[in-house]
Structure formats: C-alpha cells, structure tokens
Amino acid sequence: MSHKLTMRFTTEEDGKNFSLAIDNIKEDTNGQPILTETDVSNLMDTIVSKKVFLSKTGAIIGKKDAKIVSTSSQDFDIK
Asked: What value does the CA radius of gyration of the chain take, rounded to a whole number of Å?
C-alpha cells in the first residue's frame, strides 16, 4: 500500500487554496504511516512561516486541512 500526505493551505486571495502532496511518507515496519497530527501541523506551520511556496492566488497565509491518502493496487498476470 502506498501513502501520500496531502495538505491544503489558504492563500491571500479570498476563498482560494493551495494544495501540496508528498509521496512516500514515513512508514512503520508494517507499512503504516507514522506521521502524527503534531508532525503535520508543525510542517504546515513551517511552510507558512518560511514562505516556502507562492501560488497563483498569492502567498500562503494559513493552514486549511491535511490528510493521509492510502492507495493499493493489484497486478494481473496477463499473458
């Protein structure tokens, strides 16, 4: 199973958001994500305070939400 961290931020333009997704996040030995809410919140705070990104709708000014998206796939042996 693959896990991705997806974060959304508010920008200077009212009602507009900026999304950022990070693939291959930390996992434990069972393949489960090990990020905590505190880890993600701190990361998002750093992105906002350091002005790491500038979007088409202006500077990132706040946190909106975040989630871990898990996906799995199944291969077929087609001959």
From this structure: 16
Predicted structure pTM score? 0.85
pLDDT of 6-60, one tens digit each? Answer: 999 999 998 899 999 999 999 999 999 999 999 999 999 999 999 989 899 999 9
Distance of alpha carbon 5 from alpha carbon 35, whole angstroms: 9
**Residue 30, both tokens:** 């069972």
Q: Which long-range contacts (CB under 8 A, 24 or more apart) does 30-39 make?
A: 31/1, 33/3, 33/5, 33/68, 33/70, 35/5, 35/68
**Bridge partner list, 6:** 21, 67
The residues with which 67 forms a beta bridge, in sequence order, are 6
